[in-house]
Amino acid sequence: MSSQGRAAVVVPDNVLFEGGAGETIRRKLLQNTDLHTILRLPTGIFYAQGVKANVIFFDNRTASPDPQTSHVWYYDYRTNVHHTLKQKPLTYSHLEDFVACFNPANRHVRTPTWNSKTQDGRWRAFAREELLARDKASLDVFWLRDVSMTDLENLPEPEILVEEIMENLRFALANFEAVSTE
C-alpha cells in the first residue's frame, strides 16, 4: 500500500483559521504534505448560502523530517465575485482562469498574476514560513480589495442582491425549523 497520493478537499472557511485541532491539522498539512494550492470560493457554492468554501489541493509524500510544503499558491475566486444558485450559478467557464494559473500540466511552473503593480491579480504564492508565522498558522489569506465594501457605486445588480438575501433567509428559516422541532 502506497502512502503517496493526491487530494483536493472542499472545506468551509473556518477550517483555515480556527484554533485548537484546526491549527494542529494546518501545521501537520504544511509539514507532512505538499499543500500546494488553495482555491477560495464565494458563499453558497458547496455549502449553504452564507458559508464560504475553499478547495485545498495537496500531495501526500513519503514520511520525512523535512517540511514537504515550500509555498502555497492561492487563487481568490471570492473577492468581488457573486454567484447565486438560480440567477448566476457557477460554471466551468468561471474557473478557466484558475485552471490556467494552476497549470495542471506542470504545477511547478506557475506565474503569479498579483504583484505590487497588478494588485487586482487573483493568483499568488505565500511561503510556508510566512503562513506558519501567522496567528494560529492561519491559512485564511486575502489581499484583494473588496469594492463592495468601499465603493457603493459598484454593488451587485439588485436581482443578485435579492436572490442572495432570499437564499440567506431560506437557510436561516430551515435552521430555525430544525432547531424548533428538536
Give a verbal description of the structure:
Strands 1-3-2-4-5 form a 5-stranded mixed β-sheet. The protein has helices spanning 21-32, 96-102, 128-132, 147-150, 158-181, and strands at residues 5-12, 33-43, 52-60, 71-76, 123-127. It has a single domain, classed as Vaccinia Virus protein VP39 (Rossmann fold, 3-Layer(aba) Sandwich). The chain is globular, with a radius of gyration of 18 Å. It is 29% helix and 21% strand. With 182 residues, it is of the alpha+beta class. The model has no long low-confidence stretch (mean pLDDT 85). It is built from 5 helices and 5 strands; from the N terminus they run E-H-E-E-E-H-E-H-H-H.
Would you identify the regions where 5 or more consecutive residues have pLDDT less than 50?
Answer: none
Number of DSSP helical runs: 5
CATH topology: Rossmann fold
> Helicity range of the residues?
25-40%
The general outline is globular
CATH class: Alpha Beta
Compute the number of strand runs: 5
Number of domains: 1
**Strand order within the widest sheet?**
1-3-2-4-5
The largest pleated sheet is described as: 5 strands, mixed
Distance between the termini: 45 Å
Q: What is the strand content?
A: 15-25%
The secondary-structure class comes to alpha+beta
**Could you give me the name of the CATH homologous superfamily?**
Vaccinia Virus protein VP39
Order of helices and strands: EHEEEHEHHH
Please render the helix and strand layout as text.
Layout: E1 5-12, H1 21-32, E2 33-43, E3 52-60, E4 71-76, H2 96-102, E5 123-127, H3 128-132, H4 147-150, H5 158-181
Parallel strand pairs: 2-4
Antiparallel strand pairs: 1-3, 2-3, 4-5
